[in-house]
UniProtKB/TrEMBL annotation:
Protein name: 3-methyl-2-oxobutanoate hydroxymethyltransferase
Active site: E181
Principal location listed in the UniProt entry: cytoplasm
Reactions mediated catalytically: (6R)-5,10-methylene-5,6,7,8-tetrahydrofolate + 3-methyl-2-oxobutanoate + H2O = 2-dehydropantoate + (6S)-5,6,7,8-tetrahydrofolate
Pathway annotation from the record: Cofactor biosynthesis; (R)-pantothenate biosynthesis; (R)-pantoate from 3-methyl-2-oxobutanoate: step 1/2
Alphabetical list of Pfam families matching this protein: Pantoate_transf
Family: Belongs to the PanB family.
Annotated GO MF terms: 3-methyl-2-oxobutanoate hydroxymethyltransferase activity; magnesium ion binding; methyltransferase activity
Function statement: Catalyzes the reversible reaction in which hydroxymethyl group from 5,10-methylenetetrahydrofolate is transferred onto alpha-ketoisovalerate to form ketopantoate.
Location in the cell: Cytoplasm
Amino acid sequence: MLNKHNLSKMKEENKKIAMITAYDYPSAKMAEEAGADMILVGDSLGMTVLGYDSTIPVTTEDMIHHGKAVTRGAPETFKVVDMPFMSYHISMEDSLKNAMRLFQDTGAQALKLEGSGEVLETMERLIGAGIPVVGHIGLTPQSVNVLGGYKVQGKDRETAEQLLEEAKQIEAAGAMAIVLECVPRQLAELITSYLSIPTIGIGAGAECDGQVLVYHDILKYGVERVPKFVKSYMDSNEQLGEAVKSYVREVKDGSFPEEKHTFTMPSESLPKL
Ligand code: KIV
Ligand code: NA
């Protein structure tokens, strides 16, 4: 399995890191069978599988519940679990306890924390305690209400400098990798060349050391609209939708089940009425 060491080696050798989210047993199994280098149990599960309209309502319990299922589906793949909203902001003690449960109970190999600033100290403490950490800067969805929406970050000189600074600080805190979300590709390229830890981009261009996308976006499964940076490789809404409609139609018109779907018994064994 991947680790901090061979992840950095992939960067040195210019080998792209393929990361995908997974939230349950089948998606994890599929990611592992596809040869993904890393699986992210993202708090995007709040939207993709729980039907919330942001990641804000997601709890530590939700992450543990889904993380365990992912581990059963992808036992051999490096798994990163998101620390959800406010689970690492109340106090150091609370953060460490939540991190311990997210790490131990799910069997993940690392935790991901959004942002920098006061989160840096938490990262250091986690790493010091033996929990590998992945950073996440740029568009950080847990802060959507502070950022003022889901939009590209770091487009001007000042915010670009700030993001570069945050990336340096996260590397200095000991993080093993960093997710760059929704930043211009020129800035992502600059950060990628500056850092020695790998960058994993989502909406951050091709120069990042790796890419991550949301499982449901790749499959266009349950999501109505996908952002510009997503490539959907199929339209599950349409294809799965057709299959489910066919089932309902066939039950109603009596064409399902057929003889081949049916069990039989000798007629003399039937109770007499
Ligand atoms: O939760 C998530 O899916 C993520 C990725 C978009 C990086 O954090
Ligand atoms: Na996330």
